[in-house]
Amino acid sequence: MIFGIEHKAYERELISQLLSAAYTIFGASEMVDGFVVLLDRLPDLSLDVPEAAEVLGKFIARAVFDEILPPVFFQEAKVNNPKASMALSLAHDLYEKERKRLAHVWGPGDLSSVKRLVKEVLIIVKDYLENKEVKDASTCIAALHAPSFNSQVVRYSLTAAIEANNQQAREDIILLITHLHKTAVFSPYDVKHGFELTSRKIADISLDVPNAKATFSDLIERATKAKLLPEGFVCK
């Protein structure tokens, strides 16, 4: 949850779902203890993330809604700092007054907006291939505030290059990914995993682009030369 507090709505929704799925592993008491630890740490967390109390309050309300925390947690959780009291108060108010909305407590950045993210990425990549503005495209991708989606951004970019079926598009896409990597928008894992995701879709892409496999091999070669991928990279 600390990761979620420090990141955005998309990651927070992923974490809420992970906590719900992990309930059968951790059990009720461990889940309660984990939230109490975070309440105790709120003063420190708030130094780096001023809205930490609000975010944790939403995590708590969502956890009660998902039935991985008991409703009595609002009253029985032992807190020893004002930030923790604020988080519990907010969580209780959300649960009592906006319960029907808690499934989407993280707003437009939650997983329900994956289709929106895909549409935005496709538009950004299409515009980039037309205008060649690397910095503009990079700024737009960073502005999505969805780092967990970065591997998918790589995949959709590579797919666009394959479907364009020309050398210039391949050069442009590798240039864009390289820029995003050098500016730390994309991590090495994002790039590598994006290529792996694309590899899994090559058979489907080949239905519309018969030479997709050869084109993808060329993209891998270019990415390796650009040091985006390690030498001898093989898609898993």
Automatic annotation (TrEMBL):
GO terms for cellular component: cytoplasm. Signal peptide: none annotated. Keywords: Cytoplasm, Nucleus, Repeat. Residues 1-79, 116-236 form the MI domain. InterPro entries: ARM-type_fold, Initiation_fac_eIF4g_MI, PDCD4. It is found in: Cytoplasm. Coiled coil: none annotated. It comes from the Eukaryota. The keyword Methyltransferase does not apply. GO terms for biological process: negative regulation of DNA-templated transcription. Pfam families: MA3. The keyword ATP-binding does not apply. Belongs to the PDCD4 family. This is MI domain-containing protein.
